[in-house]
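The instructor's notes for this session suggest beginning with a concrete chain rather than abstract definitions. Hand out the sequence below and ask the class to guess, before any prediction is shown, which regions might be ordered.
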Amino acid sequence: MTEFDILLFTPHLPSHGEKARAVFTNGALVINGNRVDVPLDEIGVTLGGFNHNQVYLFWHQEEGRWAFSPADENALAQLRASAPPPLSNLLKGAATDVSRQQRRSRFGLGLLGLFIALPLLLLALLFWQSHNIAGWIAGHISIENEQKLGELAFKQATAGLKLRQSGLDAAAIKEMGTRLTKGSKYSYQWYVADDPAINAFAVPGGYVVVNTGLIRAADTAEEVAGVLAHEVQHVELRHTLKNLVHSLGLRAALAMALGDISGSALGDLAATLGELKFSRDLESEADKLGLAALRQADITPQGMVAFFSKLHEQEAGVTPPALLSTHPASDDRMQSLQEMIRQQGNWPSQPLPYDWATIKKTTR
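After discussion, reveal the predicted structure:
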């Protein structure tokens, strides 16, 4: 079997991981020449990373959670080619997650054509204005119904994750998030997920999840605040809800607007929220309004810039799948953010009152 390069994460390594070599041999996983004492059927596969473009294999040892990610596309190909059952089946499933969303979107558009008996010109007009129509429908979904949908989607999107709302890190996340969402029409709930992937996401209705991998990767509380400021804007601006409405098609979207969110079809589609991608315009809008939220909360914007710069360094040399290219590259976002900050001018800010080094040490 051929060895491949990986980035290894263990409880004893730095949050950004450590380069290593792995190989499957004699029905076992070997890392840096050492056999990993865990059955292959106890190793899980998940997608992570800020852009959801990284494959992670994870398992539990006595000292805590272990995980690794292929270092590049070549290593990913070698992993898929050499992984024995049942891992090979899990890897195939991870590879098809994005394409499944494409098929569902095409299926939704097909149903739209079947149920709407309108002239071809009108169909073309609907397609041309689909995002505007989705935005209009989303605007007529009540906050109460959005929160019901968010609750359903949150339960499905976090199935299998170990979530908590206690601990120094969770308390800091909640305090920063509350400060950034002061005066919001949503009642936010803040969670920390025990996951090494550097990621955070928000679900319609005000559910926000921050991975321990992101907490460990951040050097300051201001970096995490920058990520939170961006993510909550996707809720405040209803970006995820609008994308979901667009993906579902007109009939299901109207059902949501009327409060019918208990059907099994909507339940299945709610689980795809994590696969929806924002356009460059929506990401830019969330960045811009995120900066405004930081300004209102008297938090420096440089933490947001620093974190995107860190992501750019981590992603260097890795080409994301074409479907994920709608998410702006980290260096582009950093440059855009700097220009937005320059245009807004400096604003007074105070350091956040957290000993972030201590918080990172206590993060499980």
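Then share the key points. The first helix runs from residue 73 to 82. The CA atoms of residues 84 and 288 lie 46 Å apart.
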